[in-house]
Amino acid sequence: MTPCISVIIPVYNAEKYIAQCLDSILNQTFQDFEAIVVDDGSTDGSVEIIEHYIATDSRICLIRQEQNRGPMVARQEGCNISKGCYIFFCDGDDTLPNNAFELLYNTAILNNADIVVGHINIIDANGNVRLLRKEQLNYGVDSVSVYKSLLNGELSHNLCAKLFKKELLKEHQYLTVSNMRNGEDALLFYQIVEHCSKITCVENCIYNYIQHSTSSTHIPISLENVDKLMFLQHYLLTNIIAKYKPIERVGTKVAIERIIYWWCNTPHISRYEMVKIISHHNLWYLLTIKSLVRYCGIGSAICMWGKIFIEYGARKIMWLVRS
Q1: Which value, to the nearest 10 degrees, does the dihedral of the CA atoms of residues 59, 63, 69, 72 take?
Q2: How far apart, in whole angstroms, are the C-alpha atoms of residue 147 and residue 60?
């Protein structure tokens, strides 16, 4: 029998958290689902805990990857064997409120939506809870309008806290990057949105993001991941933003802001290496005075260029002035 929802759970060394994750899924008020756990080469006791759950509930299955290839590849492996009419992603160290599936599925059916989005709670190590953001779609529900909401910060690109029609993930080929630790959600979600006819939101928190010392938000971005983040910006600019004139300006402005952010917040990476990465992905043109003024305005351009100037030194960036 075909389940309504396939829950795909990438896991890597999550022995401290996977039990509470699976418990929150098994305790859902909506029970017509399968849970596909993808072990991404864990070296701790995660697999043993998962196997214990499999022995007590036939809806849970396990895929094992010998090598750690990152959550993007793990999710794809889960999608490949999924049978549900809808697909939901949950990280192995997070949890769900017990009515998450019920809210998402009922909303999808009622609105014939391709994607249903819910709010995310962040829970820190002390148990304090705060709302990540209020997800909004003020521009509309079609693809271009959703891109506007994403680029203006009204909608998150997180894959978690969203319910997807299976066709979006199983009938299209998407670019997948191994071992991408930052930005992998954005890379896939921007591609998915291009094939989406209708997206809607629920006014409820349906996902608990659990912060802990090993969360990606607490780990400095490595040189390899900065390279992949720059690749992401180049990909979005050339394959998404360039296609749609209504988002060209805001999309380019956001790309500039993110490059400047990573430039200023990676003191552990040499400026020489950062210059090499930015040049490799053909993004230097965004940091010229002309581009900064065009896309960000004179005031912001002066501020941004000042940050580059302070970080890198006047002599080495005079070519930016001449550009």
Answers
A1: -30
A2: 35
Burial of 156 (0-12, 13-18, 19+ CB in 10 A): buried
Taking 80 as the threshold, does the pLDDT of residue 267 lie above it?
yes
pLDDT, one tens digit per residue, over 24-78 is 999 999 999 999 999 999 999 999 999 999 999 999 999 999 889 999 999 999 9
Q: How many CB atoms lie within 10 A of CB 186?
A: 20
**In whole angstroms, what is the distance from residue 263 CA to residue 308 CA?**
8
> Are the CB atoms for 200 and 113 separated by under 8 Å?
yes
pLDDT, mean over the chain? 91
C-alpha atoms less than 13 angstroms from C-alpha of 96 in its C-beta half-sphere: 30
Return the pLDDT at 315. 41
Q: Where in the chain is the domain with CATH 3.90.550.10?
A: 5-218
Superfamily of domain 5-218: Spore Coat Polysaccharide Biosynthesis Protein SpsA; Chain A (3.90.550.10)
Amino acid identity of residue 149, one-letter, is: S
Question: What does the alpha-carbon distance between residue 99 and residue 30 come to, in Å, rounded to a whole number?
Answer: 7
Within 13 Å, how many C-alpha atoms sit on residue 84's CB side?
Answer: 27
pLDDT at 16 over 80: yes
Tell me how far apart the alpha carbons of residues 18 and 37 are, in angstroms, rounded to a whole number. Answer: 10
Q: Is 272 exposed, middle or buried (0-12, 13-18, 19+ CB in 10 A)?
A: exposed
